[in-house]
Amino acid sequence: MPEVRARASAESIEARLRVTARSETAELVADVAAQFSLRVPAEVSSTGLREFIEAVGVMTLYPYIRESLFSSAARLGEPAPVLELLRQGAFRVGGDADEQTLTPDQLATELGSSAKRVRAILRELDSGHPKNQPWHITAKQAQGVRDAIGTRH
Hints:
153 residues, alpha+beta, three-stranded antiparallel β-sheet, 4 helices
């Protein structure tokens, strides 16, 4: 899952994206950042910052992440990593790793399960989740799914 960081001042917005790709023999890390200058100094709200980073910042940085991982793999003689499609809303701009969220697809891949099964377990654990709304699985929810799948094997 990408790690996304952001900060803003009256003159600029900064975005940072870090992705780790693992294979059997290597762990490749790419960490890139960009600074976007504001034409007119302005106060940027936390909601505005998050929306800008998700829609523009991360999407601007992702090709550089991909190139960095691919060229590092080539220099090391490793196979090129296959990166997931990056969808807006599938990541969260945050601080600590505990604040980061997963999608059902990401958690299912980790657990060797299906996203449908993960969502079913999530509904059991959180019956108040709005229908037909995307899941942003917290660390606590992910652990609940891991525990549930572990006990059902």
